[in-house]
TrEMBL record:
One of its GO terms (cellular component) is membrane. GO terms for molecular function: transmembrane transporter activity. Residues 1-11, 80-96 have a biased composition (Polar residues). This is Major facilitator superfamily (MFS) profile domain-containing protein. It comes from Neoarthrinium moseri. It is found in: Membrane.
């Protein structure tokens, strides 16, 4: 049996039809009920015949000059017919308002994934049937959502830890006697450097050995390093433990996208990703608030303990509840089991190719380690979109470092209260979450239907241009409000667009990479994460010098102008992404 090109079974090589319509038209199409669906509903409704209409029908059935038909009777019938007509119009209007399209419409689903089945007579091991319950795509809804919720919880922990120390910089620098501002920010930024290193080997390991084992081991390592972060004897050891904690904690962001691709078909991934991403988006915005109160009350070291305790509990749940989801690994284990049970060493997995059969485990691991780097540097699409998101992500962590200082020095807020400013960013994340979870899958279904049933990954990207325009607003709004000492509410409100814009950019970009490379989704997200984390690690280090030389207003304006210059990036990828992918394919 031929091996499918991807675990989703979807063919993304078919040409997409050119359309002159803009991204806003797609949003309108999603929000507007389908006319075809409305016609179907109207044709299915049973007509209501009122008493007046029956009397009119009886009257009209009589001969024009027939007996018993008087002028008074005709006038009464006409009057009642007028009343009935008005009532009928009102009834139809109410029905249209209250009626909802069926959730089980055939248009709500793309073509189902065709699973490779076992053919033992040919020595091939695959799935037992298209409805095999051991196939992650066929898991029950409850089991899938349990896995996604656990993934969201554990993914919350590392991003929470990444920025929870930002309000405590002055406390640990005072304890360790550090006066250099750049060195003082290192424990915060170095965590993201670990985020950049970890995905390079954790992603391929999850594709070779399985998602669950890598998820558990890496999170256990993260928990151990958090103990070191709570008990460092000096600043150097704090930096080292923070780096190692970032390496372990990066696993959730790295392979989470692959797990979503394992569990959900294309038309359901947007909603699942929005649930999973609650952790890594809400976590960093809540962390400065939590860290500020911890540092100002019970001590900055407790920031690490607060991350360690829930991380350990959720990791324990992963051991007993979380399922293995990697399709290839599941069939690999099934093949090994059948070889022993049936005494047939020649059996092979349906996902194996002649090339993979000839490779040793060391060679497979080496190729897996190179895969994220190949995707990052040989795919113009992944490099460009990763570079754009990386810059925006770097400005986010620059804000995490600078906002507490701004509100403490300009507005006289305490360390604990200054963290409240990030509530505005959390509100922006929430608004972006609601928008993405509602529109993403619906737009994919409608655009695929309009494209003759052919799905293209670029269908995830139409709304990115609008969020790219929203993101720069924060830097001008917040920056100049703080520079001119405007009311604190003006500065806090100015942070909202950044949260909204980042979520609206980050989520479609991740979904696009997963759909473009579904078989290697973890490696694709790893490539995306590496560049993003490097920028997030080093850009904040330039913050103190930037604001010291230019001030809060012009310093933030520079960031805003750079964001404006990058607005064409998502537009170009949406319009020409498919052509670029086909012209420069990456051999993995």
């Amino acid at each position: 049996m031929a091996s499918p090109n991807s675990e989703t079974g979807m063919d993304s090589s078919a040409p997409i039809r050119d359309s002159p319509r803009g991204p806003l038209d797609y949003v309108r199409d999603v929000a507007r009920p389908s006319e075809e669906a409305a016609e179907t509903e109207e044709s299915d409704e049973k007509p209501h015949v009122s008493k007046f209409e029956r009397e009119e029908a009886d009257l009209m059935a009589r001969p024009n000059n027939g007996p018993g038909v008087t002028d008074d009777e005709i006038r009464r019938t006409e009057s009642r017919n007028s009343v009935a007509s008005r009532r009928s119009k009102v009834s139809q209007t109410i029905s249209k308002v209250l009626s909802k399209p069926s959730k089980e419409s055939k248009k709500d689903h793309l073509q189902p994934t065709i699973l490779p089945l076992s053919e033992l007579e040919r020595g091939i091991v695959g799935w037992d049937s298209q409805h095999d319950p051991t196939m992650p795509l066929n898991f029950s809804r409850r089991r899938k959502m349990t896995a996604v919720v656990l993934l969201a919880l554990i993914t919350l922990m590392a991003p929470l830890s990444s920025s929870i120390l930002s309000p405590a910089i002055k406390y640990y620098t005072a304890e360790f006697g550090e006066t250099n501002a750049t060195v003082a920010a290192m424990p915060v930024s170095i965590f993201l450097l670990g985020f950049a290193v970890g995905p390079l080997f954790l992603a391929p390991m999850s594709e070779i050995f399985g998602r669950k084992i890598v998820l558990i081991l890496a999170n256990s390592f993260f928990c151990c390093m958090e103990i070191g972060c709570a008990l460092p004897p000096n600043l150097g050891s704090l930096v080292a433990f923070r780096f190692l904690a970032g390496v372990g904690g990066s696993v959730n962001l790295t392979i989470g996208g692959g797990i979503i691709a394992d569990l959900f078909p294309i038309e359901e991934r947007g909603f699942a990703m929005s649930i999973w991403t609650i952790g890594p988006t809400i976590g960093p915005s809540v962390a400065p608030l939590v860290g500020a109160f911890i540092a100002g009350s019970i001590g900055w070291r407790w920031a690490a303990w607060i991350c360690f305790i829930p991380s350990t509990l959720v990791t324990g749940l992963l051991v007993f509840v979380f399922p293995e989801t990697n399709h290839r690994v599941l069939i690999k284990h099934k093949t090994s089991k059948l070889r022993k049970e049936l005494g047939r060493p020649e059996l092979e997995s349906c996902y194996e190719t002649p090339e993979s059969r000839s490779l040793s485990n060391a060679a497979i691991l080496r190729l897996g380690l190179l895969r994220p780097l190949k995707l990052l540097f040989l795919s113009p699409i992944i490099f460009t979109i990763s570079l754009y998101i990386s810059f925006v992500y770097g400005t986010l962590y620059l804000m995490y470092n600078s906002v507490p200082t701004v509100f403490q020095t300009i507005y006289g807020w305490s360390t604990g209260v200054s963290g409240l400013a990030f509530i505005a960013m959390g509100c922006g994340y929430t608004a972006g979450l609601i928008f993405f979870s509602y529109f993403s899958d619906r737009s994919v279904i409608r655009l695929t239907a309009a494209n003759g049933g052919i799905y293209e990954p670029e269908m995830r990207l139409p709304t990115m241009a609008y969020f790219a325009m929203i993101t720069p607003c924060t830097f001008f709004w917040y920056g100049w409000a703080a520079e001119k000492h405007a009311h604190w509410a003006a500065a806090v409100t100015g942070i909202f667009p950044l949260g909204l814009g980042i979520f609206g950019l980050w989520m479609p970009a991740q979904a696009y990479i997963i759909d473009a490379y579904p078989q290697y989704a973890a490696s694709g997200i790893a490539a995306f994460t590496v560049l993003r984390s490097l920028t997030g690690a080093f850009l904040p280090l330039a913050g103190p010098a930037l604001f010291a030389n230019l001030g809060i207003g012009w310093g933030n304006s520079v960031l805003g102008f750079l964001c404006i210059a990058m607005i064409p990036v998502p537009i170009i990828i949406h319009r020409f992404g498919r052509k670029i992918r086909k012209k420069w394919p990456v051999k993995l």
